[in-house]
Specification:
The structure is a homotetramer. By secondary structure, the first copy, chain A, is an alpha+beta fold. Chain A is built from 5 helices and 21 strands. Chain A has one domain (3-246): Sandwich (Jelly Rolls), CATH 2.60.120. Chain A has helices at 8-12, 27-30, 72-75, 270-289, 293-303; strands spanning 22-25, 36-37, 45-47, 52-57, 84-90, 98-108, 115-119, 142-148, 152-154, 161-162, 166-171, 179-180, 184-185, 188-190, 201-205, 213-219, 236-245, 254-256, 260-267, 305-308, 316-323. In chain A, the strands form 4 sheets. Chain A has a 9-stranded mixed sheet. The first copy, chain A, has a 6-stranded mixed sheet with strand order 3-5-16-11-14-13, with no helix packed on it. The interface between A and D is large, with 56 and 57 residues.
């Protein structure tokens, strides 16, 4: 028995332990990728709770950066960045439910150097930007192409990094907004959390019929904060399994893995993202794990864990987590 | 000759000094009001540059708060707040142009008490909110109904305030996003700037064909920052005149009146909104008024004026302005 | 009878309407100027409530910038900037009181060009800074020397600005901290509010015996936000009259003039400075002007006025004000 | 050979591998504890580089909270909180040097329940505060007394947490400011980083002769962000070894342990603290480890680690780190 057998996905999901059909959302089947997550686009796939989907994601530059001479400012056009697969309709999903997305595996696609990193003018954590508006000259535009396999990210002659794949952008649709795939908020979106990789379950609030799941923006690895604004972006075949938690009305995305439960907040300034994440975690501990609210609050002050997603997007993302070992009922 | 004769609207507008047709965008003609500004809704009106439109705006609660016993949390449902008229299509408008909106007059509609103010739980400047998440109990929910005429806002037995009407929410459509009417950003939106009243021209970036103009959220008066989150909200017949500045590719909304030119920034934290507004103003002075960039920057440090729009919405709004008398060429 | 006869200073001050002695705090008498405001420096003057003091202030660069070739990075050394006169001891002042500082006049000292403005690397509102740390190259270092008289600030061939003098930095001492004169906080300090000029009264919390008043940083004029980080800095003979409000235990500085009462908050991010200022104003209206707390809050949402002090210092300053005409009891 | 043999402390310290004298800074020897870190207090100890000091720290409430009925608002008085030992003078330390503080061990003092946690009105991450000023009623004031030994923190019947001691507040003196021990900034101060425990070396900028080292605020454990504002506060005998890195002119504190090097930034908003930490880390990698600046920046985007210190103090603290394995020269 694994932790998954006791997960919320397995114990409260509509599919439960039943194994569903496997679908293939290929590039061809996807057709046009999406740059907003909203209720106005046509579904590309209809699945049942418990189904498995192999998704062919494109990289955040949609493959336009093939060499280190290809500059994002020349090859890409705002706002047509960070292409998303979807929307995928989950049967039975209604406003007030939560969709569970278990990531089984992420396999690189395409020829090496498959990975792309870049410094993009007025984008990133250590530069004046569109929103943190300054009069300084922008940083240089630099592109790095990186070999990636299922073990390593070959960053440079000097440094090889472990392959730690994760999904950067994941969400159901907002109810009436159609939000840029560059922006995270309470629907999920561009959270850039390294925890959202194989072996994790993400729970997303459903706000329209079918949920309308979007997924994209795979990273072969990423540091906390994604400080230059870009991870090792690459195309993948990402296998997910989806389920539906009926009547679980969560306001912000949540995540579960072998070790922790995590709540995710996204806004600016960064302290507000942190506040959201921790408040949701206090509420979760109170509601589902039998803690007194103030005890949960004071206890997280002793053992809470914080992950910085990105602090470079239009909104910043923070995950607040607690080890599952402290949740055990006695 | 008035200042309008020398305004950018008159001197660079496609209609120029020609007076156009008057349209009536009544409640009936509008039909369904909108809660997002985006490219996915059906036009309600097609106009030419120079045309005048009398718009029947609804108040931000869409008329649901009729007495002080009507609570927003019972009568209204998120995200169906702040209803917008539109989209209005302006002939010839294309991405890279600017739409000019001159507000001629704002006349109250409906019976008194026409005005509504409210304290809404977890909304406002001096309370924990959805984004500034705290564990404190919310403030009480309180509704105020207020008599309003074209001279005064009869706030209380003790205090009568001057009628200073303005449009709280104004924008063209983003290119692909469909953004909540509660949110301001570079497209305009819920800026809540008291300056945006009769006698002002607002310039809005065009990002899709026809511009797709949205307007709503009239305030009979409002303080800087709209600190409790709600102004004196009311329904109006607002008369605007629109024009089109071809090839004026502005990134953020701008405003002009008898006395000043103003640039408008909206984001969080509030210093970033201020940065955006001032940077745009430096750039405007450099491009259209012949100032050296550094001279403009240093001079605004001596004579710039800042207006706080709201600091209660999902994003905050700041206008940075300079008196026109300092722009005169010698 | 003027507004001053009804001011808090006159009606609640220990000196009341009695006119006190005039002291001269010359450069010679001051001796060493101070770069922190705290309890560890030796008094330079002892005065009684009601006394008048003519203070010879130095400019923020302590006179080191004499020509446009003098660069601040060469001529000045951090943290020895923004020199302050004081500490001035006010007889009878104890923790829990407030000191009132009425500014009578500000007369320029020294030969023209007396005024200095500068762009200083990594300082200012539209650049990466020490705290908003970026990797961009700094903006150029530029110095402007400006003629100033008691009518005008001769900014450039093209622009002449009105002389609108005010005191940039004003405070009593914190209780145990000794805070850089570049930083504003609840003690006052480097607030850079254009309202703090002749004809205004500032109320400062007393936190140690004698109050230990510090004053400096005169500006011949300044825009909202002091966007490039520097106003038109100059040396003055500033005449103030001080009084003592016993038992008026204010937490943050307050200001009163002919037209408004204002509360002042200083911190980061800017929305928090605004929150402080407005919360203090709500509390002041409740305590001293008979308003219900929630009525004050909602009413300020309709008629509150916000002044941005600076958003360039280590902390940002905001004043929130209400017109005195709305405070009249009926 | 351990990592310490290759540490900056050992390889560049003035004492080098020489083992110095052991001093005992007992409560009696300390006498009066300090509530600000500055240049105005009398030294309590003079040591040589390489010396060892056993410091008897008091808990952040200075022992005033003995039972769960003792309320901080009754037993403690602002600003007399977070008492510090020191200043300790390090022979030869001059402005432009860095002091290295290796923490050898932290042993609890006093009878159980030795540990104290509390919810203090208007203090903490999920409540309106002095700076994030709201009109909401404060959260309840709650005190928890906790048994602590060198293995465990006995939080509740349900939860036992591992003993993970660290020093919450550590700094040399600023040059002329005297800063509250509640506030972190570039001098160090109240950083509340869980990494600053036994087995770590912290490097602090020296800004006045002798360095004037202050230390206090021990925590038996603490979560990221210290969300309720208080850790498990306790009194200790903390053994440190100090050394002096001549001419290492660091602007912000740095930390080194077996696994990582870390730079520490403290300010508001939280994104600025993160910017400082990451910029310093880029600069450190460039200067001491031979990385190209842009390569370091882009690489940290793939493997940087962020620790949230506290986001509850007057300023927030972030540590940005990189694994030492990526620093190895090839």
């Amino acid at each position: 028995m694994t932790w998954m057998d006791n997960s919320i996905m397995k114990t409260r999901g509509a599919a439960g332990r039943k194994d569903g059909t496997t679908h293939h959302l290929t590039e061809a089947k996807q057709g046009k990728y999406h740059y907003t997550m909203g209720p106005y686009s046509d579904p590309v796939l209809h699945v049942e709770p418990g189904d498995r989907i192999v998704v062919e994601t494109r990289d955040a530059f949609e493959g336009a950066i093939k060499t280190e001479q290809d500059k994002p400012t020349q090859k890409c056009t705002m706002p047509f960045l960070n292409p998303q697969n979807g929307p995928i309709m989950i049967k039975g999903a209604e406003k007030g439910d939560a969709v569970a997305v278990y990531i089984e595996s992420m396999v690189p696609r395409g020829d090496n150097p498959r990975g792309t990193c870049a410094m993009i003018p007025e984008f990133g954590g250590l530069t004046g930007t569109y929103y943190t508006a300054t009069l300084n000259d922008p940083l240089p535009e630099i592109v790095r192409k990186i070999n990636v396999d299922e073990k390593w990210v070959y960053w440079s002659d000097r440094v090889t990094l472990p392959y730690k794949p994760h999904v950067g952008t994941l969400s159901c649709s907002p109810e009436i907004d159609s939000i840029s795939s560059l922006t995270p908020d309470s629907h999920g979106g561009n959270m850039d959390l390294p925890d959202m990789g194989p072996g994790s379950v993400t729970y997303l609030p459903v706000r329209s019929a079918g949920g309308r799941l979007f997924i994209g923006d795979a990273h072969a690895c990423q540091g906390d904060g994604e400080v230059c604004g870009v991870a090792v972006e690459y195309a993948t075949a990402t296998t997910i399994r989806v389920d539906l938690i009926k009547g679980w009305n969560i306001e912000w995305p949540r995540l579960e893995n072998d070790e922790v439960i995590m709540c995710i907040g996204s806004t600016r300034p960064l302290e507000d993202a942190t506040r959201i994440a921790y408040r949701e975690l206090v509420r979760w501990m109170e509601k589902d794990y039998g803690f007194n609210k103030w005890d949960a609050y004071m206890m997280l002050s002793q053992c809470g864990k914080v992950r910085l997603g990105n602090f470079v997007d239009p909104k910043y993302t923070v995950g607040a987590a607690i080890s599952k070992k402290y949740l055990v009922m006695k």
